[in-house]
Design brief:
Blueprint (H helix, E strand, L loop, with lengths): L15 H5 L22 H25 L3 E8 L5 H8 L8 E5 L5 H4 L5 H5 L7 E5 L8 H4 L5 H20 L2 E9 L2 H13 L9 H8 L1 H15 L6 E5 L3 H17 L19
Parallel strand pairs: 1-3, 1-4, 2-3, 4-5
Helix pairs in contact: 2-11
Length: 281
């Protein structure tokens, strides 16, 4: 968590986003112990609050669509087993799929590799009135690329500034950017991988490549920390979500989305029709 005095006093719902936001230019350290924090919230209250947030998110998305001036980009990153898919399933289904897209960025194709690293990402950015969710994102180009030495250091080092500039352009074009890092501990990852092996219905989710990445835990943690330090900005903040407890993760994500949408000056368009004079027969 951010290098500030730890305070586990229970924040109000309104204050949860601020408690989890990475302040620009702050130093950051990912600690396994922080992945279990719940800030004094208990499961029952989180479940109720999440349901309330989902109802509100549905209303806010409808208003975003009707307003038509703004869009929202949600970036989700996590180490393998971090819960990206289940977060999308449990929280983002509050949104009408007609106005929300989910893009999973996997290993780049030969076509993608012929372009700059932001090419495929920019194509998936949200249109006005809509929400786009990135399951992994342009940040892979300072994560897996860095850890596995896929490009020279001089190349990926430049990308932090390039990403910040790209996100600034989106923000200045009325896209609200929300970036969520789902933080789990190494032991929690082991338990989730073991569950995929033990449950026949989840066997398909297990990849032998995950075991190799697990041996790179420290390298990935370092890459995540630098990403959070260099790329959490006023126009595109990172939020670090303690994600060992899925019920707190879902509550925190839904509360952040609600907060971010409520910051937009959304309004329903005015009609030129004299609706009072229209009689239906």
């Amino acid at each position: 968590m951010p290098n500030k005095k730890r305070n586990d006093k229970k924040p109000s719902r309104r204050d949860v986003p601020d408690a989890l936001r990475v302040k620009p230019d702050s130093k950051f350290k990912l600690r396994d112990a922080d992945a279990t924090r719940d800030f004094g919230w208990d499961k029952d209250k989180c479940v109720v609050a999440t349901a309330d947030n989902r109802n509100k998110l549905e209303q806010l998305q409808f208003q975003l669509y009707a307003d038509g001036r703004f869009s929202m980009l949600v970036v989700i990153q996590a180490i393998d087993g971090g819960g990206k898919d289940s977060t999308i399933r449990r929280v983002f289904t509050a949104f009408n799929p007609q106005g929300c897209t989910v893009t999973a960025f996997k290993a780049p194709s030969s076509e993608v590799l012929q372009h700059d690293f932001l090419w495929r990402v920019h194509k998936a950015a949200p249109a006005r009135g809509s929400i786009a969710v990135f399951n992994r994102s342009h940040y892979e180009d300072v994560l897996i690329v860095r850890v596995n030495d896929l490009v020279p250091r001089a190349v990926w080092e430049r990308r932090y500034d390039q990403i910040n500039e790209f996100e600034r352009i989106l923000a200045e074009c009325d896209t609200r950017i929300v970036k969520l890092f789902l933080h789990i501990s190494k032991e929690e990852q082991r338990e989730r991988f073991q569950d995929r092996l033990d449950d026949r219905k989840k066997n398909w989710k297990f990849d032998l490549g995950d075991l190799e990445k697990r041996t790179q835990w420290d390298a990935y943690n370092e890459a995540f920390e630098i990403m959070l330090e260099k790329c959490s900005t006023a126009h595109a903040p990172w939020y670090v979500i303690p994600a060992n407890r899925k019920w707190f993760r879902d509550f925190a994500v839904s509360q952040i989305l609600r907060y971010e949408l409520e910051q937009l000056p959304l309004k329903f368009p005015q009609t030129r029709l004299d609706v009072g004079s229209i009689k239906l027969v």
